[in-house]
Write a structure and sequence with these properties.
The protein is mainly alpha-helical and about 200 residues long. It is built from 7 helices and 4 strands, in the order ββααβαααααβ. It starts with a strand and ends in an 11-residue tail after the last strand. About 5% of the residues have low confidence.
């Protein structure tokens, strides 16, 4: 849990239209897209319906929707609120974000890594603020159902998650994040603002 906090959060105007300048592309989308493509091709090549494969592909479609559309909505809202908040950032909370920046962009300077990490912490604090404000929680049953669905779809063991408290709570946090992100998209007016420029042919 972060030691950093928001010391001042602005008044929320749910009627204000927030514009997304583009779809937020993440590495997870590329991975999910590949799994969807090859999984669907594999299913179509089978004579009999594979129930587990159908469940797996449906789960991938849900994840694709989350990363493609709902994450874009959250990032748009975060970009709006972060500049309006006052933060008390604790240095040790930046470590994880700096590791992420270094792994994804190895040539970045320490200062740039710190900038990216600060943005991650600030956006996460905004997300946590909304989760607390709206009373979004996840019960043990929801976590267990999520893990059971994962097992049925993939046939992979879930014992390590059920026997390890930290891993179990990580799943809970992931579900809270998705529920909060969905609620953000439901409560705020978010529009995609894309401008496509078509180059003119030289005379």
């Amino acid at each position: 849990m972060f030691k950093s906090k928001i010391t001042k959060f602005p008044e929320i105007d749910y009627s204000k239209v927030l514009y997304a300048d583009g779809i937020e592309y993440t590495p997870e989308m590329d991975m999910i897209g590949q799994k969807l493509f090859f999984g669907t091709i594999d299913l179509l090549n089978k004579e009999k319906e594979d129930r587990r494969k159908v469940m797996y592909i449906n789960k991938m479609f849900d994840n694709w929707n989350y990363h493609l559309f709902q994450q874009t909505g959250f990032v748009t809202v975060a970009k709006h609120f972060v500049p309006l908040c006052i933060f008390d950032i604790v240095e040790e909370d930046l470590a994880g974000g700096m590791r992420y920046a270094k792994n994804t962009q190895p040539n970045l300077s320490i200062e740039k890594q710190k900038d990216i990490a600060t943005g991650i912490v600030q956006s996460t604090l905004v997300w946590l603020h909304f989760a607390k404000l709206w009373g979004i929680t996840v019960s043990d049953k929801e976590v267990d159902d999520y893990l059971d669905d994962f097992y049925r779809a993939t046939n992979k063991s879930i014992r390590e998650f059920k026997n390890d408290k930290d891993k179990y709570e990580h799943i809970r946090t992931d579900i809270v994040m998705k529920k909060t992100t969905a609620e953000i998209n439901n409560r705020f007016v978010i529009k995609l603002n894309l401008t496509i420029t078509i180059p003119r042919k030289a005379d």
